[in-house]
Amino acid sequence: MSNIPLFSAKAVNAGLDFQTPINTVLNRHWYIMGEEVASFEGEFANYVGVSNCISVANGSEALELALKALGVSSDSKVIAVANAGFYSSTAIHAVGATPLYVDIDAALLTLCPQKLREALAQKPAAIIVTHLYGQLANIEEIIAIADAAGVPVLEDCAQAHGARRNGKQAGSFGTIACFSFYPTKNLGALGDGGAIVTNDDTLAGKVRQLRQYGWSSKYTVAVPGGRNSRLDEMQAAILRVKLPHLDQWNAQRRAIAARYNSAFKSLPLQLPASVGEDYVAHLYVVRSDDRTGLAAFLKEQGVTTDIHYPIADHHQPAYQSSCTLPVTESACDQVISFPCFPGLTDEEVGRVIDAVTRFFS
Known about the structure:
With 361 residues, this protein is an alpha/beta fold. It has 2 domains: 9-244, 3-Layer(aba) Sandwich (Aspartate Aminotransferase, domain 2), CATH 3.40.640; 246-360, Aspartate Aminotransferase, domain 1 (Alpha-Beta Complex), CATH 3.90.1150. It has helices at 9-12, 19-28, 35-48, 59-69, 87-94, 113-119, 139-149, 201-210, 233-242, 246-264, 291-300, 326-334, 346-360; strands spanning 52-56, 77-80, 98-101, 126-130, 153-156, 164-165, 168-169, 176-180, 194-198, 215-217, 220-221, 284-287, 335-338. β2 (77-80), α5 (87-94) and β3 (98-101) form a beta-alpha-beta unit. α2 (19-28) packs antiparallel against α9 and α3 (35-48) runs parallel beside α9 (233-242).
């Protein structure tokens, strides 16, 4: 019996024609900042429901450039959560700022609004809100709190492409937002890629300069802190093929998550809080008091699992902090991810359910 992978690019991309768009790019002989990039930026902005999309090389650089565009600098503090893989922290450190970690909501595992209120006394320059595992945070409440304090909100949507609430999409709530198109994402390229979206035309103009050396015109550096961070034409062409399928793929992910939730509801697991439109099931993550035993048993049954994420940002050996985040630390000790992706067969989902159920029987 074959192993069930945590993710399969072969299954996700089955039936898609990538050769035609790649050949189109090859025949144009234009590989950077061309027609495919311009078209994708317009199509993705329209999909998210914002006026500007600026594509970049990857999601990490998207976060870094967005912080720079917001004016975050070496004397700034930036609020972030500490259970999301250190990606936001990497960007904060890259611009020389200091992370100000805030604990998470126990149900959603995203930024806790009440803890945010308390942290605002430290006068942060920005707030990063990560829609972790594809679950929208309490973003409306967070925006209201931030607006009252005059602090911009940067949405980290790397795992939440297409998540919606009350007609608004992830990436359209905050001041500015960032996406990753890493191959395993809900909208994934065939390599690295990222984007920054915003309704603020001034911010968008600054990001466009920052992604290309800080140029105001060719060879004229007008903005400090610029870099070479550009999505290439082939990746943009691939993303244009995949974008029309995104909502259908998200629905398939939610259907798998709903099936899991129904099957596991009586087990000693803490399950995802939502399987509605505000959750696009980038990862199906549960919490278990016996994560090690569960993972070992599932491996024996041919079910691949992973931990997203085992080390809280404030416990990373390179950047250890003295802050205490009890909900975050508990989650990092308990979370485990099960297979959940478009193309996962009904039979495979059944095998996962059977294996998890037998572990607890």
